[in-house]
Write a structure and sequence with these properties.
With about 450 residues, the protein is α+β, with helices and mostly antiparallel strands. The chain is built from 9 helices and 25 strands.
Length: about 450
């Protein structure tokens, strides 16, 4: 909770960061540690000379192994320490040429000019490297499977998973996702080295490097090459070889805008955990179905067929019961103002069942007005039918409106058939009384 409160004190966008004049040297491509000097400190957005125990601050360093958030890759976390102090780094951002380290003073105090030992969270960085390199291979796989029209439109790379947005006009099928995973898996098994080279933009484009959407590039660019099929301009951190990814599993695919799709995936240990979770779920389903995981689909298909057969039998039985109930109900019709009227409640029948019963009753009571009510799935359902010969005097829609209103609900429909609903049938007697009064005035 303390860390969460401290992290909330810091801006998450570069536009809200303090302005710094420092030019920080980033050494994190090759080093997880460094011995930097604090050049600036900001507390509550104001420059100051020191920060004391318990205070949240931005520390600016002359050099750093901490990656500053950019290109979709989140900033590093870790620890800055000296014999007299400890500062926990909760996030790293870039402000122009300065790397801003957001965190909290854990012990002592930190001052401008202090020399600190900087150490990133190496396991977190390793996970981020895997996920970042996976986005490059994913980009290549999508272009291979879907076509060269695929362009990266955005990404998020953190220690838990990756998110990749790209241009494509339709949903990705499960077969295509399988092909994407197989393409990446082949690259991983090749264990091709990851190489980085700095060159001019013209040289990079000539070498076939892909520039990413929304990124700003200078005259000199960093080109990341993963095997023979992925060459991109990128300033992020990456694995040493494709085999370091272990495996890549796509966990979700969706649309985020017109012509833009999104894929989410996991790598390494997270991918193994994902696979194991899916396998455990499949085992549980197989146990419930009393079959083996290999036969789950066949068992489900058998159950679906059986379910449809049972549903048909239930429908037939309900029709027989409705027919019998209709014969009994027809004898309970009453005469109101010269009109044969039947007002009845039916136990546990849905709207479709009430309509079917109403049709049967009209055959037995051809010149009548009928209102049926039932409680189904915790709600009141109403259906009304009125013979055509009576439309000059009463209409089904009017009867339903009167009945539903008495129950605090709504309804309506045609002159011959109407339907309504309410929260409860508790006042159904009052509703039927209101219908009788309406017919009596017709």
């Amino acid at each position: 909770r303390t860390r969460a409160r401290a992290a909330s004190n810091f801006a998450s966008t570069t536009g809200e960061l303090p302005t710094s004049s420092t030019v920080t040297q980033f050494v994190g491509y090759t080093n997880d540690t460094a011995q930097p000097t604090i050049t600036e400190i900001f507390v509550d957005g104001e420059a100051c000379q020191k920060a004391t125990k318990g205070q949240s601050a931005w520390l600016v360093l002359d050099q750093t192994p901490f990656y500053g958030e950019s290109g979709g890759q989140v900033g590093d976390t870790g620890l800055l320490s000296s014999p007299e102090s400890k500062f926990e780094v909760l996030d790293t951002q870039k402000s122009r040429a300065a790397f801003m380290h957001a965190g909290t003073v854990l012990e002592g105090e930190v001052s401008v000019g202090d020399v600190m030992s900087a150490e990133i969270n190496t396991q977190r960085r390793a996970n981020i490297r895997q996920n970042h390199s996976a986005t490059h291979l994913l980009h290549g796989a999508l272009r291979h499977v879907l076509g060269p029209h695929v362009e990266q439109k955005g990404s998020l790379v953190n220690a838990e998973h990756l998110r990749f947005d790209f241009s494509h006009g339709s949903a990705i099928s499960s077969e295509e996702i399988t092909q994407v995973e197989q393409w990446i898996d082949a690259e991983i098994r090749d264990n091709s080295p990851c190489s980085t080279t700095e060159m001019s933009m013209d040289e990079a484009i000539a070498a076939g490097a892909i520039a990413l959407f929304g990124e700003k590039y200078g005259k000199q660019v960093r080109v990341v090459k993963l095997g023979d099929n992925s060459v991109e301009l990128c300033g992020g951190t990456h694995v040493s070889a494709t085999g370091d990814l272990g495996t890549v599993r796509v966990t979700a695919e969706s649309g985020v805008a017109a012509g833009i799709r999104r894929i989410e995936a996991v790598t390494g240990a997270a991918a193994l955990s994902y696979n194991q979770q899916i396998e455990h779920q499949l085992d549980n389903v197989a146990q419930l179905l009393k079959t083996s995981p290999r036969d789950v689909v066949a068992k489900l298909q058998q159950l679906q067929i059986r379910q449809r057969e049972l549903a048909k039998q239930v429908e037939q039985l309900q029709a027989k019961l409705s027919s019998q109930a209709g014969a009994d109900m027809a004898g309970q019709a009453e005469n109101i103002n010269g009109i044969s009227v039947l007002l009845q409640t039916v136990d546990g029948t849905d709207a479709k069942g009430l309509r079917s019963l109403s049709d049967q009753l009209r055959q037995k009571l051809p010149d009548s007005a009928i209102v049926l009510a039932s409680e189904h799935s915790g709600k009141a359902v109403l259906v009304s039918s009125v013979a055509k010969s009576l439309h000059a005097r009463i209409k089904a829609g009017d009867l339903i409106s009167v009945a539903a209103a008495s129950l605090g609900g709504r309804g309506g429909g045609r002159a011959d058939m109407a339907q309504g609903g309410a929260a409860s049938l508790a006042e159904v007697d009052a509703a039927f009384t209101a219908v009788r009064e309406h017919i009596d005035k017709a």
